[in-house]
Design a protein that fits this description.
With about 375 residues, the protein is α/β, with parallel strands linked by helices. It has 13 helices and 13 strands. The structure holds nicotinamide-adenine-dinucleotide. The site of nicotinamide-adenine-dinucleotide (NAD) has 27 residues, from α2, α4 and α5.
Length: about 375
């Protein structure tokens, strides 16, 4: 895979020949949203454009985005879906398909997901299935979506039986990650995403060794630690670099292993326990908070197994503490239920589960540990 990076002021644009033969244009940086119409023109994105968004994002950003889609070039319609996870349903998928059908969308036309991971999961699913695939462009407006959900080509809706149970692999033609759009996010939600960014920092060296990703002069962990020590201000110019590193890392991982046969598993660091904590705690912990706790417990397990030293585990815990994220197992959760939930994880294989464990030093992991299901209690 090749990529070209071009620096135009604060916005970096990249063209990726990504996995599954899709070219993705990625623009990252403050003001990147102003590249929307130019990007659509480069994509031959058709005449019709559907912007899918939620009320709490639309109120801040819809007008701005529509101004970037001139009516002489595009016939734009919008569909407002319910806030948060509530849009990831078969009902809203059907309404989106019907919207596309009623307005005569054809396979050259484009769906734009304007919002967080919930909207991009729904929009991606709808765009991948309607007429077997329209163009998809993602404008992620949450930090979690910018570093994670908008990248990597997974789409999903929830079913009554559980989260993300129906989905497709479908790559967007473009991702436009504009740091300025994060300015309207509630602080707690921004901080939650640090759990995922910490994950990227703790796998960085291994990703560089096993893919075309190249580390910068300063390890991501040091950059993240400094930005947290400075109060994690969303206007901090360093945050755009942080977002770019996470995006590049995920793109390179997914290019090597789009369907999670091997390297992509590395992105599960902290997630086996994280998902169990979300489920058993009835989703009172956000995803990023649960992943953060998952990471501290996994790092402790690495110390027990003499894979890394105690000081490294203390540093991880301290980073979460200073970010004001939970860094210990919450009291009162039923340990048996947590073990059961972890054992049902999709990374299970026979009597073992594939775990990602920090190894040697922070930044390096072993992502192929076959861990006995019977020992899962050691993570608690
Ligand atoms: N496909 C993937 O690879 C992937 C990866 C990670 C997470 N996800 C999914 O992403 C979802 C979580 O995404 P999320 O954390 O981005 O939250 P979200 O999309 O659920 O958004 C949370 C709330 O914030 C609002 N919001 C979004 N941007 C805003 C802004 N700039 N200002 C003010 N409010 C704003 C939204 O309207 C929403 O109500 C989950 O459904 C998860 O399963 C998918």
């Amino acid at each position: 895979m090749r990529h070209k990076a071009k620096h135009t002021g604060p916005v970096i644009t990249m063209l990726w020949n990504t996995a599954l033969d899709v070219r993705t244009r990625v623009a990252v940086g403050a003001g990147a949203r102003h590249k929307l119409s130019g990007t659509l023109a480069q994509l031959s994105a058709g005449k019709r454009v559907l912007v899918l968004c939620q009320a709490s994002t639309a109120v801040h950003w819809l007008r701005d985005v529509l101004e970037n889609l001139p009516s002489e070039d595009f016939k734009v319609t919008t569909l407002e879906v319910p806030d948060g996870e509530a849009c990831k349903t078969t009902d809203w998928l059907l309404r989106t398909w019907e919207h596309l059908q009623e307005r005569g969308f054809d396979r050259h036309d484009t769906v734009i997901a304007l919002g967080g991971g919930s909207v991009s999961d729904l929009a991606g699913f709808a765009a991948s299935t309607y007429l077997r695939g329209l163009n998809l462009v993602i404008v992620p407006t949450t930090l979690l979506a910018q570093v994670d959900a908008a990248i990597g080509g997974k789409t999903a809706i929830n079913l009554p039986a559980g989260k993300n149970l129906a989905g497709t692999y479908f790559f967007p033609k473009a991702v436009i990650a504009d740091q300025e759009m994060l300015s309207t996010m509630p602080r707690k939600q921004i901080i939650g995403a640090i759990g995922e960014i910490l994950k990227y920092a703790l796998i960085e060296e291994t990703v560089a060794k096993n893919s075309d990703y190249e580390m910068g002069p300063t390890p991501l962990l040091d950059v993240l630690e400094k930005i947290i020590n400075d109060g994690f201000d969303i206007d901090d110019p360093g945050i755009s670099g942080l977002i770019t590193s996470c995006i590049k890392m995920k793109l390179f991982i997914v290019a090597r292993d789009p369907r999670e046969a091997n390297l992509r598993r590395i992105l599960n660091l902290g997630h086996t326990l994280g998902h169990a904590l979300e489920k058993v705690g009835e989703f009172k912990l956000s995803h990023g908070e649960a992943v953060g706790i998952g990471i501290t417990q996994t790092t402790k397990l690495s110390v027990q197994q003499k894979r890394i030293d105690k000081a490294a585990a203390e540093r991880v815990k301290d980073i979460l503490f200073r970010a004001e994220l939970p860094h210990e197992l919450p009291k009162g959760l039923n340990k048996e239920q947590l073990i059961q939930a972890m054992a049902q994880d999709k990374k299970r294989h026979g009597d073992n589960i594939k775990l990602v464990l920090p190894q040697t030093r922070l930044g390096v992991v072993d992502y192929e540990v076959a861990f006995p299901l019977a020992d899962l209690g050691k993570l608690l």
